[in-house]
Amino acid sequence: MLIAFYILFPVLVIFLCYRFPAVNKIGAVVICYIVGITLGNIGVLPDGSEQVQATVSESAVALALPLLLFSMDVKRWKRLAGPALLSMLLGTAAIIVIAVAGFFIMTGMTENPWQLSGMAVGVYTGGTPNLAAIKTALHIDSGRFIVVHTYDTVISIIFIIFCITIARRVFLTYLPPFRNAFVSDGAHDEPVEKEDVDSYAGILSRAVAPPLTAALLLSAGIVGVSVMAGSFIPPEYGTSAIILLITTLGIAASLVPSIRHIGKTFQLGMYIIYIFCLVVGSMANYRVIVNIDAVIMVFIIIAIFGTMFLHSLLCRFFNIDTDTFIITSTSLICSPPFVPVVASGLKNKEIILSGLTTGIIGYAVGNYLGISVALLLKNWT
């Protein structure tokens, strides 16, 4: 019954988000976390549920990753104009610098600072799926994961408000104004997948369900192959290797047009991530959440706004315009779903495609970067 609840409750959440705009503004991820935390702290979970929770959470991340990557059009990346791609690379470099610096500052102030640095690099080049994957790969405690994700959610809201209100005026003081940064041939552009709840419409239709089931089975096969290969790697690095292999095989599968064009694979992957959020929430102890960890809170603030500031200085050096900088910063720090929100606030729809595309590239590279940085810093100590 517990497993059935974990699987079916996100369906209700998606329906409620679709039916009620006010619920949708809260977001499916946040609702799943809140319900999970409540469930895990009111004493209704049966004895021995910890093993079920661990198994479901780890399986959900592994199964979701290929589905999230199947719909990527890697060839599209070459049509991303220089300024947008360069801005993304500069933003990625900025979070790595901030995360590594934060590791040395936090050493002795909190346990396993290398985990925090790895999660920061993963989530601020990708998004929640990357954060979830890195949690699994690095064996991060669920309580710490919830704390990081909660603080990240709160500070990210402040970041978005800043981006859509005064960010342009601030950065125009030393960055040039916008110029069209995306080159497209028009006829060959494919729609970029969305996380919004409206995109789940028709997922159970006869035209969508059969090929989507095949994609789910392919994802399970990729997980199976990766787990088998990971068994030949020393246990200390086995889980990390499995996650990276799953990511690699998912990207490789996206190169096959018949797989890439299967509808709703991204949405199914995000649905499984909702399951993960619900399960992990139910594993968290509320006492860990309500007692604010000042070190982690300050680190998240610096990781977000420090990265944005350093990113802007690098963009100034390379003469990248203000709007391109803001939208790529948004796509990296807050993930693609927030790109249209910020673009609307900037009243510049031309930057949407650049932001979405760079954000999806971030989904692909976030696991590699986050896990690599974390393990390098761990071995440093």
Report on the structure:
The structure is a single chain. The protein is an all-alpha fold. It has a domain at 74-178 and 202-263 and 292-380. It is 73% helix and 0% strand. The protein has 18 helices and no strands. The protein has helices at residues 2-19, 21-26, 28-41, 49-70, 82-106, 113-123, 128-137, 142-165, 167-171, 209-230, 235-254, 257-260, 265-282, 286-290, 294-317, 322-333, 339-346, 352-380. Helix 16 (322-333) runs antiparallel to helix 17. The radius of gyration is 20 Å and the shape is globular. The protein starts with a helix and ends with a helix. The mean pLDDT is 84.
Fill in the keyword field for this structure:
single chain, 381 residues, 18 helices, 0% strand, globular
Task: Tally the helices.
Answer: 18
Helix fraction by DSSP (H/I, runs of at least 4):
over 70%
Low-confidence stretches: none
Mean pLDDT: 84
Report the structural category: mainly alpha
Give a quick summary of the entry:
The chain is mainly alpha-helical.
Layout of secondary structure:
Elements: H1 2-19, H2 21-26, H3 28-41, H4 49-70, H5 82-106, H6 113-123, H7 128-137, H8 142-165, H9 167-171, H10 209-230, H11 235-254, H12 257-260, H13 265-282, H14 286-290, H15 294-317, H16 322-333, H17 339-346, H18 352-380
Helix pairs in contact: 1-13, 3-13, 4-7, 4-10, 4-11, 4-13, 5-6, 5-15, 5-16, 5-18, 6-7, 6-18, 7-11, 7-18, 8-15, 8-17, 10-11, 11-18, 16-17, 16-18
